[in-house]
Design goal:
Helix content of chain A: 25-40%
Oligomer: heterodimer
Number of strands of chain A: 11
CATH topology of the largest domain in chain B: Rossmann fold
Shape of chain A: globular
Shape of chain B: globular
CATH superfamily of the largest domain in chain A: Pyruvate-ferredoxin oxidoreductase, PFOR, domain III
Radius of gyration of chain B: 21 Å
Order of helices and strands of chain B: EHEHEHEHHEHEHEEHHEEHEEHEHEHE
Strand order of the largest sheet of chain B: 3-2-4-5-7-6-12
Number of strands of chain B: 15
Strand content of chain A: 15-25%
Radius of gyration of chain A: 22 Å
Helix content of chain B: 25-40%
Number of helices of chain A: 11
Number of helices of chain B: 13
Strand content of chain B: 15-25%
CATH architecture of the largest domain in chain A: 3-Layer(aba) Sandwich
Strand order of the largest sheet of chain A: 2-3-1-4-5-6-7
Largest sheet of chain B: 7 strands, mixed
Number of domains of chain B: 2
Largest interface: A-B, 27 and 29 residues
CATH class of the largest domain in chain A: Alpha Beta
Distance between the termini of chain B: 57 Å
Chain lengths: 382, 407
């Protein structure tokens, strides 16, 4: 096999070191197999923003000439393996490096593999993952998504497990033997070697047929040419907002139809409208102006523009009125206020257990308390 | 003088590093004394890397983070005057902000080595590669070299010190590295041992030009028209001497380290019998070589010539290499608004180079890859086709073509 390409899709800054470890180790290990490779991040993702979907690549070839051949297109347009380090990105990714929403499997070649680290099962993930015209394989590494806060690398062996899984799903890329030797040399840590070995042993994949998956059409954007663009670097601003959903009451800001940034989100706020005291703090503090003021004076988080930062939860003075909940629980960006208005009882029946569950699972961008690291490592290793 | 405290680079090794990191390692191997820095993408990747080498204790040097690019370049100029080996660099408009210091560095014959992480000039703010930033020093007495691979970045950084510090030359040296393609992608690089480098690179000795209490001198007096032309002529002569020094240094490098193209000035790829030759600089080589191979397989007589040194401009080598071609397609990753035929900088230098020849190829200019846009294999094939049409009809329809620009 001449050349194999791997892309790692990760959360900007939060998972940067994790992604870098994966692509570098692929190239190191391939070197042990006598191959040559290169590792690089998408230049246009950088400087990275917290949580914005970003990519790094590893390209491996048998010979330098073949490597050059594949690098004639610097940024891969098709990859043998796509690795998704946060299952929320199965819903699609919009980075500031491109325009519109890109399906997570957009670059996955026919017959290639999409590896996802997730606690969800395949049918659940496929509700989010967009359908493709060709078949490919889906492999899941059962694990809590690896997050540990800004610039902090959470050494929870996610990288090692991904590396083990890659050897299983794409043996042409690099042999397990070379990978284990390389991990040993790079880290000097036997536990890491065994994590990779175990992931190799356990990883299975299932085929995804053409047309299987999310049938929504991702939003897209046509870029204008030089004859149609305004001169002098002028960009027309959005019209100011108006009443809620175009009505006379409430308020809703103007929003872009083609730049939404919700794929940055790995958690979203869930609102208990019955307990809201209309203090305005979530609306004021939201850095993305994502709260719409409803005619009855409540605040409806608009899921097309929420990037999941959690500021609303932090500033809300009412216990459990705003709770950040993992994206895995949702399959759409529908309005919570609409659901609540339509049927308050069923909304609350859905919302209250979800909030309770979130409290016990504590899904965050980092550790909530000292000792969280050891707990998670032990849980993952079981 | 800085001393190196660890045993790093005691033996030859193989590293997975970017072009910027390769230059950082070259600085360590060259035992650079003073590095100044001010962050701007993509140059900042080398800044980060030398910081790390210093923090790891792998490389000891005086590290000065200036408050602006202007001071950054002023400081290395002064350090160079007292005999310190120096390194600095910048990108895009950061490089432009340092311009006053950049021009005096050459005027005072300070062999500063700088890395230019090529970046589009603002506005619009953009991080991608364009060559206009580095090209702006082309008239000032700096060596200007375009790197294509991380390995070449390391090798040329070592050669740069040897050439710039040669008493026959004493002119600064800018290593131009395409943003992203070179500064941010990691490739396998052979890192030489410290011993090999010591064999190749002598210490920087400024001799009687060194600013030192034991050698009382004044540097940089104000002058009038009675003096200036002679001073300019000295710099001109130094630039005229440098090609020989480059050749010597390059040969010696090849002997000690066992790698490098035959010529330090240009890289010829399948040019020997080529009727059409594509010319470009930097990492453009990657897609172009692939395109050339594909077109050769289809029976087309095409070649690629990479201009490595832009200053000194290798006119003789280029006349020889391009003299037998029927058509030459010059790809500029830059522009020169309002220039003859509204073309790029490289194109004008080349057309001027070929003018004295009895037999001249048809020369066409293509503006491509601005702001980091990828130049694709298909683009190169189209460029060759356009040039072929000019050759076949003997007529140039359009001197300058913008490639892959959305209408």
């Amino acid at each position: 096999m001449a050349t194999r390409a791997v892309e790692v899709v990760y959360r900007g800054i939060f998972q940067r070191t994790l992604a870098r470890n994966i692509v570098r180790n692929i190239v190191f290990a391939a070197r042990k197999d006598g191959k040559i490779g290169t590792a690089f991040g998408r230049y246009s993702d950088s400087p990275e923003r917290n949580g914005i979907p970003a990519k790094q690549f590893a390209i491996v070839s048998d010979t330098a000439l073949e490597l050059e051949e594949s690098l004639a297109v610097y940024e891969a347009t098709a990859v043998d393996v796509t690795i998704n380090l946060d299952d929320a990105m199965c819903k699609g990714i919009e980075s500031w490096a491109w325009y519109g929403l890109q399906p997570i499997n957009e670059l996955t070649k026919p017959g290639g593999t999409l590896i996802v680290t997730s606690r969800q099962d395949a049918p659940s993930l496929l509700e989010d993952i967009h359908q493709k015209d060709s078949s490919y394989d889906l492999a899941i590494i059962p694990s809590t998504v690896s997050f540990s806060g800004l610039w902090v690398y959470k050494d929870d062996h996610t990288d090692m497990r991904v590396l083990g899984a890659i050897c299983k799903v794409c043996p042409d890329l690099v042999s397990l033997k070379a990978m284990l030797v390389s991990i040993q040399e790079q880290t000097g840590n036997e536990a890491k070697v065994s994590s990779a070995q175990r992931a190799f042993d356990r990883t299975t994949s299932r085929p995804v047929e053409p047309g299987e998956g999310n049938t929504e059409t991702p939003f897209s954007f046509d870029m204008p040419g030089w004859k149609t663009m305004e001169e002098g670097l002028v960009i027309r601003a959005l019209p100011q907002g108006g009443g809620f959903r175009g009505g006379d009451e409430g308020y809703q800001p103007g929003r872009s139809e083609v730049f939404k940034k919700w794929s940055t989100r790995s958690m979203r706020p869930v609102i208990n409208f019955d307990t809201c005291i209309k203090c305005t703090l979530c609306w004021l503090q939201c850095p993305d102006t994502c709260f719409d003021i409803t005619p009855d004076g409540l605040y409806d988080a608009n899921m097309e523009s929420c990037c999941g930062c959690g500021v609303c939860e932090a500033v809300c003075p009412v216990p459990d009125c705003v709770t950040m909940v993992g994206e895995a629980e949702f399959n759409d960006n529908n309005s919570q206020w609409d659901a609540w208005t339509a049927d308050k009882d069923s909304y609350n029946k859905w919302m209250i257990p979800l909030v309770e569950k979130q409290k016990s699972e504590v899904r965050t961008h980092g550790f909530h308390h000292v000792g969280g690291y050891d707990e998670e490592i032990n849980a993952e290793e079981d | 003088m800085a001393t190196v405290q660890t045993k790093l680079y005691e033996k030859e090794s193989e590293e997975l590093i970017s072009g910027s990191e390769a230059i950082g390692i070259a600085c360590a191997l060259a035992d650079v004394d003073v590095i100044t820095a001010y962050p701007i993408r993509p140059y900042d990747t080398v800044m980060q890397y030398v910081s790390r080498l210093k923090a790891d204790g792998a490389f000891d040097f005086d590290y000065i983070i200036a408050e602006s690019e202007h001071s950054q370049f002023e400081i290395v100029k002064h350090a160079s005057a007292v005999g310190a080996r120096t390194f600095t660099g910048s990108s895009g408009v950061g490089w432009f902000y340092a311009f006053e210091a950049i021009t005096v560095t050459a005027g005072l014959r300070m062999p500063v080595v700088a890395m230019v992480g090529n970046r589009a000039l603002d506005d619009p703010g953009a991080f991608g590669v364009e060559h206009n930033d580095a090209l702006a020093v082309r008239d000032l007495g700096w060596h200007l070299y375009w790197v294509a691979t991380a390995q070449e970045a390391l090798d040329m950084a070592l050669i740069a010190y040897k050439v710039a510090e040669d008493p026959r030359v004493l002119l600064p040296f800018a290593l131009s590295c395409d943003g992203s393609f070179l500064t941010h992608s990691q490739a396998i690089v052979q890192v030489p041992s410290r011993d090999q480098v010591e064999k190749f690179l002598p210490p920087y000795k400024r001799g009687k030009l060194q600013l030192h209490p034991d050698n009382p001198i004044t540097v940089a007096p104000q002058v009038n028209e009675d003096w200036l032309m002679e001073i300019r002529k000295q710099t001109d002569e130094a630039m005229r001497r440098t090609p020989e020094v480059i050749k010597e240094a390059y040969e010696e490098f090849r002997e000690i380290f066992g790698r490098g193209d035959p010529s330090p000035f240009i890289e010829e790829y399948m040019c020997e019998d080529a009727e059409i030759i594509v010319v470009g600089m930097g990492t453009l080589a990657m897609p172009t070589r692939v395109a050339i191979r594909r077109m050769r397989e289809a029976g087309k007589k095409v070649g690629f010539l990479r201009v490595k040194f832009f200053r000194p401009f290798p006119a003789e080598e280029l006349q020889k290499a391009l003299g037998n071609a029927k058509g030459v397609a010059v790809i500029d990753r830059d522009y020169s608004y309002g220039s003859p035929s509204y073309g790029g900088v490289l194109f004008h230098e080349l057309r001027s180079t070929m003018y004295p020849m009895d037999k001249r190829p048809l020369m066409l200019n293509f503006i491509a890859g601005l702001g980091g846009r990828e130049v694709m294999v298909g683009d190169i094939e189209q460029i060759v086709e356009t040039t072929q049409t000019a050759v076949d009809t003997g007529k140039i329809e359009q001197e300058t073509t913008w490639v892959a620009v959305r209408e």
